[in-house]
C-alpha cells in the first residue's frame, strides 16, 4: 500500500497545509484505502490563490513566449519520466482501469507537446490598411487570471487542456481540481513547479463546491474554465454574469449517442456501442447513454451487444485484464441504480439487468455491471433525456434516417455523436442535421484527440471548445495600427483638416 498523500494548497510558490477543515480522497475500488488528506480551501484561500495569480501576471505576460514554451518541454520530460506512477495513482484514486489511465497520461502529454509547438507560432495576423503608410495587425493578448475547475473523470488530461493554452498565452492560473481526485491535481501542480514555472503562475486550491464558488465570485478572475455537470456550469455562468468582462467556457453534461444505420457492419457497430457505452464505466462526458438502431437490424444487434456486455470483465483497476473498474463513489452507485429502476418504471424492456456487483472481488468497491434496455423513443421518458453517467444504456429503434436525426436531437444536450453506416449520403445527413460538438463516422462517440476542438452545444457547452480550441478563449484579439508616414491620414476618407490646415 502506498503512502498517504499530504494535501497542500500552492499559493505564490509556497505550499500551505491548513489548521482548518480537511477532506479525504478514498479509492473507489477499495473504499478503505485513503489516498490522501487535503485541506478544504476556505473563501480566504480562494482569494489568496487569485491574488497570487494576479501578482504573477505582469511578469509572466512579459516573459518570452518561446521561454514559456520551453517550460512545457521540461514538463513533457517530467511527465514521460512519471508516466507509470501517474497512471497508478490515477487508477487508485479514480478507479479507471490502468490501460485507460496510461492513455490519459498520454493524452495530457499530447496537450503539453501541442502547446510547446505553438510557442513558435504566430500570435496574430498582419492585415492590410486602406492607407498605404499604415501597417495593421491583429495581436492576441492574454486576459489575466484564469480559474481552472476540473472534473474527476479526466483528472490529468482535462486540467492540461485548460492549463496548457492558458499559460502559453501568458495568463496565470488558479487551479481547483475535483475533490474526488485531489492527489492527481496536486501531483500535476508539483510537476509544473519542477518544470520551472515561476512562483504564482500556477496556484492550487483544494476543495469542493464552496471553494469553487469562491473562485468564481472573485472579481479578479478574468476567465473561468469549467468541465463538469450542467447544474454547476449553469451556476458558474449565473455568478459570472455579475462581472462585466468575464469569459466563461463550460463543458457540461451529455446524452451522447451512437446511431446504427440499417446498412451498418454489425460487428463494427457492436464494438462502437460497447466502447461508447461502457468504457470508463460510462463515466466520460462523451459516453453514450443511447444507441439508436435501425429497426431492421435491431434484434441481431441487441443480441450481439448483450452477449458481449455480459462478457466484460469488471474489477480491480490495477489489473490490466479488466475492461472497466468501479464507478467513482457510493453516490454514483445510487444514482445509476435510481436510473435503472426508473427505466423499468418508464416501461423499458430490460435486455441485461445490471446493477451492484457484490462478489468477493467487488465487495469493497463501487462496482456496477452494465444495464441495457430497449425502449421506443418518447419525449416524456426521463431516462432517454437525462444524463446518467454510468453503465446504463438505452437501445432505441428507429424507422429511417430522418427519424434517427429527430430522436438524436430530442435531448437538451449536444456533445458527441457517432454514426455507423456505409452510405455517404447518410453520413452527410447526420453530419449536418444532428446537434453535437464532436461527430464520428464508423467509430465510437468517445476518443477525441487534443488538437481537435472539444466541446458541445445546448446544455453540453457554451461554444468555447476545450483543448487546442481554448487558445481563442484565453486570449482577446486586439487591433494594432502603426503609421509610417509623417502626416495623419484616416480611413474611410475622413478629413484631417483642422481649421483649414491639414493635421501635422
Ligand atoms: C470526457 O469525456 O470527460 O474523447 C473527456 C474522449 C477523451 C476525453 C474525454 N479524449 O473520450
Overview features:
binds 2-aminohexanedioic acid, 2 domains, seven-stranded mixed sheet, 504 residues, five-stranded parallel sheet, globular, alpha/beta, Aldehyde Dehydrogenase, Chain A, domain 2, 12 helices, Aldehyde Dehydrogenase, Chain A, domain 1
Structure description:
- The chain has 504 residues and is α/β, with parallel strands linked by helices.
- It folds into two domains: 5-123 and 141-252 and 461-471, 3-Layer(aba) Sandwich (Aldehyde Dehydrogenase, Chain A, domain 1); 256-449, 3-Layer(aba) Sandwich (Aldehyde Dehydrogenase, Chain A, domain 2).
- It contains twelve helices and 24 strands.
- A seven-stranded mixed beta sheet has the order 15-16-17-14-13-19-20, sandwiched between helices.
- Helix 8 (266-278) links the parallel strand 13 (256-260) and strand 14 (288-294).
- The relative contact order is 0.14.
- The model has no long low-confidence stretch (mean pLDDT 96).
- 2-aminohexanedioic acid binds next to loops.
